[in-house]
Amino acid sequence: MTATAILAREWGAEIKKSARQPAFALPTVLMPVVFYTLFGITLARGDNAASYLLATFGVFAALGPSVFGFGISIATEREQGLLALKAVSPMPGFVYPVSKLLMTFVFVAIVLAMIYAVGIFAGGVSLSPRAWAAMIAVHLVSVVPFSLIGITLGYLMTSQVAIAIANIVFFLLAILGGLWMPVFTFPGFMQTMAWALPSFHLAQLALIAQGMVKADFLWAHIGAIAAWTLVLTGLVAWAVRRARD
Amino acid sequence: MPHSVSPVRLTGAVKRFGATLALNGLDLEIAPGGVTALLGPNGAGKTTAIGLMLGRLRPDAGEALLFGRDPRDLAARQRIGVMLQSAGLPQQLTVMEQVMLFAGYYEAAMPAAEAVALAGLGGLERRRCSALSGGQQRRLQFALAIVGRPDMLVLDEPSVGLDLEARRALWTTIRALRDRGATVLLTTHHLEEAEALADRVVVIDKGRVRASGSVADMKALVSGRSIRCLTALDDAALAALPGVRQVSRSGRHVVLLSEAGEATMRALLAADAGVADLQLTGAGLEEAFDALVAEAA
């Protein structure tokens, strides 16, 4: 079989594994949809709430599958020894992480489709095709730094500890990054603190894509995401090498 | 499937973990065909040796070759099937789904259903891993190891968690695969398993090969023929006694390994009337193994 065919099969298996695991699939799919409906539609104040929060909840939609589906599942499988078994099999090495990444994108795409539908049909969100395209791009790119956070946690600690820490990181990134409530409603020091979080910069980029926030800091946000991605990639490379010997 | 290149060749392999020297210049060659059992006490370096030959670890010094290639080469890995000591399989996937995945990695795989049947999992094809017993999960790992029709099977403690019946069924399958030409390398804690299966036994201790040969060779090293005593004779005189294969000293005692215990004893008593503390022991592979490992200590 070609490497592509093997990848396609592994991708399918990854989707089945996650879909058959309600403890993963339900919260990661339902939480963004339920919370967006609640904060963006039901309890919304102001005209643009549904649109504004669609930008930030799109980043939240990428957070769960990336940190838990990608990072933590690698940690668990490494600990159980499955990773070692795959590593000595004739499966090409790139297939394992890539199939998991593709599975993550599937889940993120499903969740995004659901919140976009809620936004359009229940929230009356209306954007230009260009704004949609830019916002969707930001939402999908969010998978990369969040997955790297998950892998770093997964490689540095046992899976039980990693899950506990991942939960804390998950809520910190969501709440303090302004994914649930707009950052401008925060007290001043929290608004400053948000600049340290990748989730904040991604949410700002999604808002800029919509034209909801001025593009004054566009390059600062892009630079911050690039820096986070670079640092996390270095951390993952170090953690993977450390785990190997 | 005849293959002339040695499936495994470790030459002067050294591997250190921090302050621990796991392999201390290990030389190990597995020739094509037959079942080889790798024996050794915990911490002897068995798992490290397997790690090197599978490319999970790189030697600090020396060389590890798998079918004459770098063990990380996918072409080399096409020729092996592996069962690791602990490999938690994905609980959400069915038996058939998992075997199909691994079958896809190999160019010459057998039909997945055949591997499932050979591993004794017939009838459980659609069952998810989470609903399998520990022994059944172990058999599923065996199915994953054999589905690619590999030239060599590497089985790390294959029968752990299996009941007696399942273990015997596994042995029958391993023998059948060997008879078809496969090379099998297994590590085991059960000397009974090595005795039942192995054409060749390699004893590893302290990161080196202590002894290797057929099961009968191993037994002959001590079987009914290990003589321990205090004697004034020197090593040369002891080695010249009838039947003596090896002379070693442990403290003030001398240990003779003999092919003919009684004859050696008679000659020993005739040559040195002052022999004291005389002991004659023997038995199966277990005693041979204990003696080899104790000797090294």
Describe this protein's structure.
The complex is a heterodimer of chains A (245) and B (297). Chain A has one domain (3-244). Chain A is built from 11 helices and no strands. Chain A has helices at 3-19, 22-42, 49-80, 82-87, 95-122, 129-141, 143-156, 159-176, 188-194, 198-210, 218-244. In chain A, helix 6 packs antiparallel against helix 10 and helix 7 runs parallel beside helix 11. Chain A starts with a helix and ends with a helix. The mean pLDDT of chain A is 91. Chain B has helices at 46-53, 74-77, 95-105, 112-118, 134-146, 164-179, 191-197, 215-222, 235-239, 261-271, 285-296; strands at 8-17, 20-30, 34-39, 61-66, 80-83, 152-156, 183-187, 200-205, 208-213, 226-230, 244-250, 253-258, 276-281. In chain B, strands 5-6-7-3-8-9 form a 6-stranded mixed β-sheet, sandwiched between helices. In chain B, a hairpin with a 2-residue loop joins strand 11 and strand 12 (253-258). Chain B is elongated, with a radius of gyration of 22 Å. The mean pLDDT of chain B is 87. At the A-B interface, helix 1, helix 3 and helix 4 of A face helix 3 of B.
The rounded distance between the terminal residues' Cα atoms of chain A is 31 Å
Alpha carbon gap, first and last residue of chain B: 41 Å
**Count of domains of chain A:** 1
Strand order of the largest sheet of chain B: 5-6-7-3-8-9
Low-confidence stretches of chain A: none
Largest chain-chain contact? A-B, 24 and 31 residues
Order of helices and strands of chain B: EEEHEHEHHHEHEHEEHEHEEHEH
Present the secondary structure layout.
The complex is a heterodimer of chains A (245) and B (297).
Chain A: H1 3-19, H2 22-42, H3 49-80, H4 82-87, H5 95-122, H6 129-141, H7 143-156, H8 159-176, H9 188-194, H10 198-210, H11 218-244
Chain B: E1 8-17, E2 20-30, E3 34-39, H1 46-53, E4 61-66, H2 74-77, E5 80-83, H3 95-105, H4 112-118, H5 134-146, E6 152-156, H6 164-179, E7 183-187, H7 191-197, E8 200-205, E9 208-213, H8 215-222, E10 226-230, H9 235-239, E11 244-250, E12 253-258, H10 261-271, E13 276-281, H11 285-296
Parallel strand pairs in B: 3-7, 3-8, 5-6, 6-7
Antiparallel strand pairs in B: 1-2, 1-4, 8-9, 10-12, 10-13, 11-12
Helix pairs in contact in B: 3-4, 3-5, 4-5, 8-11
